Structures are given as structure tokens and as C-alpha cells.
Automatic annotation (TrEMBL):
Role description: Catalyzes the reversible epimerization of D-ribulose 5-phosphate to D-xylulose 5-phosphate.
Binding site for a divalent metal cation: 32, 34, 65, 175
Protein source organism: Paenibacillus oenotherae
Name under which the protein is recorded: Ribulose-phosphate 3-epimerase
EC number of this enzyme: 5.1.3.1
PROSITE patterns tied to this protein: RIBUL_P_3_EPIMER_1, RIBUL_P_3_EPIMER_2
PANTHER family listed in its UniProt record: RIBULOSE-5-PHOSPHATE-3-EPIMERASE
Cofactor(s) of this protein: Mn(2+); Fe(2+); Zn(2+); Co(2+)
Cofactor note: Binds 1 divalent metal cation per subunit.
Gene of this entry: rpe
UniProt pathway: Carbohydrate degradation
Positions contributing to substrate binding: 7, 65, 141-144, 175-177, 197-198
SUPFAM superfamilies for the chain: Ribulose-phoshate binding barrel
Length: 214
């Protein structure tokens, strides 16, 4: 079953709780929370205080995507704020095994994200510890960007790598440029968790928008 995770990066920041409740009622499975620090990526969004503020608006899984330098410094605060799963970028973690361990010791499933140009080999010594791999299908930082088509080959290679290692139950998440056109392509290539920001939040009919991705 495909998991649809609307990204609140494209939501109405002046009424974030209401928008989260709206997509919950429109059939979203997870809420994807894009945390950006203006250093690792050229955009600045929100931190644990905002996550805590929207927590009461939905019981859906808070899927926190940390696009920040030194994510280990904020993992406890995001756990406290109500994160249900946390994904960190391999590119921001020289001590990735230790950071993944921090997330798991906090009792949360851990994900590792790779930017479009980061090879799958970055996962070789950590993938067995993970619940999810996130393949960025745009360069991180902004919503509404164009899907990078080379991602499809990388996605197929990842699915094959996981199957070879007996990890076919692992979640593969894609993030960036996912819409009614690219959704069937990424599902076919092996993704089972689809993040969509602009494809959902710019639509009046969120229920139809979410359904169009399944
Ligand atoms: C980009 C974020 C994505 C983004 C997706 O850095 O990680 O989650 O919000 O936005 P769309 O779906 O509009 O490409
Ligand atoms: Zn994201």
C-alpha cells in the first residue's frame, strides 16, 4: 500500500494547524515535516516549537525530514515535540551510525536521506540499521521544483540493493516533484512512501489530489 505524506513546506504557514487537519481529513497517511536551517539548504523553515504547536491537530505520523547541519543537536527536541520518525541526511552526518543510533535509542524509526548526486554506496554500512531510505528527487530546499528523472534509475538500483540484502520490507521514500504524473513512475520503480508538497497543498480539493498519487 502506498503511503502518501503531504509536505507542509507548501502549506499555509499562517494556519498550519488547520492545513494539517485538512489533509488528515482528506486521506493523508503521514505528515512530512521539512526542517531547514538556511545553512545545509538555502532555505529556513521551522523547528521543534512549530512541530509541537501542530502536534495536537492530528494523530497522523509526523515524518520529520532534517535538512540541517549537526542534526544530532536537535534530535531530542524533535522527539520531545512529537516526531514519530526522523530522517537525517547522510551528507550532514560524519558520524551517521551514531546519529541513527540516537534516533533509535529515542524509540523512533530512523531514515537516511540521499541528495540526487549522492551515490547509494553511502548506505552500504548503515542500511541494515534503517527503517527507511529517502531518495531526494529534487535538490533540497524548496517546494514546487521539477522532478529529476535520473532518480528513477537510482530508485530501481536501490530497490534491487535492498532485495539482494533481504531488506525488501524497508520503506523507500521519494521527495520532490511528486505529482499525478511522476507518482506512477516512482511507484513502479520501487518507492512506497511518496512525499508531495505543492501537488497537494496548492489544490483546493486535497482529497482528490492525494487520491491522484495512489
Ligand atoms: C524539498 C523538500 C520536499 C518538498 C517537496 O527540499 O524536502 O519535501 O517540500 O515539495 P514538492 O512536492 O512541491 O516538490
Ligand atoms: Zn522533505
Amino acid at each position: 500500500m502506498t503511503i502518501i505524506a503531504p509536505s507542509i513546506l507548501s502549506a499555509n504557514f499562517a494556519a498550519l494547524g488547520e492545513d494539517v487537519k485538512d489533509v488528515d481529513q482528506a486521506g493523508a497517511d503521514w505528515i512530512h515535516i521539512d526542517v531547514m536551517d538556511g545553512h545545509y539548504v538555502p532555505n529556513l523553515t521551522f523547528g521543534p516549537l512549530v512541530v509541537g504547536a501542530i502536534r495536537p491537530y492530528t494523530k497522523l505520523t509526523f515524518d520529520v525530514h532534517l535538512m540541517i547541519e549537526r542534526p544530532e543537536n536537535l534530535i531530542p527536541a524533535f522527539v520531545e515535540a512529537g516526531a514519530d520518525r526522523i530522517t537525517v541526511h547522510a551528507e550532514t552526518c560524519p558520524h551517521l551510525h551514531r546519529v541513527v543510533g540516537m534516533i533509535k535509542e529515542a524509540g523512533l524509526p530512523a531514515g537516511v536521506a540521499l541528495n540526487p548526486s549522492t551515490p547509494l554506496s553511502a548506505l552500504d554500512c548503515i542500511v541494515d540499521e534503517l527503517d527507511m531510505v529517502l531518495l531526494m528527487t529534487v535538490n533540497p530546499g524548496f517546494g514546487g521544483q521539477k522532478f529529476i528523472t535520473q532518480s528513477l534509475a537510482k530508485l530501481k538500483a536501490l530497490r534491487a540493493m535492498l532485495d539482494t540484502r533481504g531488506l525488501n520490507g524497508m520503506n523507500i521514500q521519494v521527495d520532490g516533484g511528486i505529482n499525478a504524473v511522476t507518482a506512477p513512475l516512482v511507484r513502479e520503480a520501487g518507492a512506497n512512501v511518496l512525499v508531495a508538497g505543492s501537488a497537494v497543498f496548492t489544490e483546493q480539493d486535497r482529497r482528490a489530489a492525494i487520491a491522484s498519487l495512489r
